[in-house]
Amino acid sequence: MKHVRKSVLLWYSPREMFDLVVGFQDYPRFLPWCESAELIEQHEDGVTARLGLAYMGVHHAFTTRNHNIPGERVALQLVDGPFSLLDGTWVFLPLGRPGSDTPACKVEFDMRYAFSSKPLETVVSPVFDRVANTFVDSFVKRAEEVYGPR
């Protein structure tokens, strides 16, 4: 099993960063490895979505069920794909004094994953390791594009 933990302090509000993470339909626009994003089912507290992975000649898709607490947290669980385990959380913590008009937050990303077979791990792991380790950076860059540099 692999485990990725990243955190970053940003001059964006928790809600702004939450909106980028739950906006999975836009992933193919800014995540170089994401070739497709499909809504499978809308739930009261989130979505089930399927992402197509295409990177360095490797193509796979996986589906997750995402439980959302608006502006605060996204928790994802594996539904199907090349994994035996895939779960993760995004946490968006406000920074600064209450009532301050300067938005800032700490973004924490935590993900664990393992592949369902040794051949899949051999082929997909190097690609997914790169994806997992650059995920937070990709969302920071996206925030600058969408909301402007701060």
Characteristic terms for this protein:
globular; alpha+beta; 3 helices; 7 strands; 150 residues; single chain; Alpha-D-Glucose-1,6-Bisphosphate, Chain A, domain 4
Detailed description of the structure:
The chain is of the alpha+beta class. The chain has one domain (2-147): Alpha-D-Glucose-1,6-Bisphosphate, Chain A, domain 4 (2-Layer Sandwich), CATH 3.30.530.20. The chain is 29% helix and 48% strand. The protein contains three helices and seven strands. The chain has helices at 14-22, 27-30, 118-147, and strands spanning 2-10, 34-43, 46-55, 58-69, 73-80, 83-94, 105-115. Strands 1-7-6-5-4-3-2 form a seven-stranded antiparallel β-sheet. α1 packs across α3. The longest helix has 30 residues, at 118-147. The protein is globular.
Radius of gyration: 16 Å
**CA(first)-CA(last) distance:** 36 Å
- Low-pLDDT residue intervals, each spanning 5 or more residues: none
Using the 3D structure, state the CATH architecture. Answer: 2-Layer Sandwich
How large a portion of the residues is in β-strands, by DSSP E? over 45%
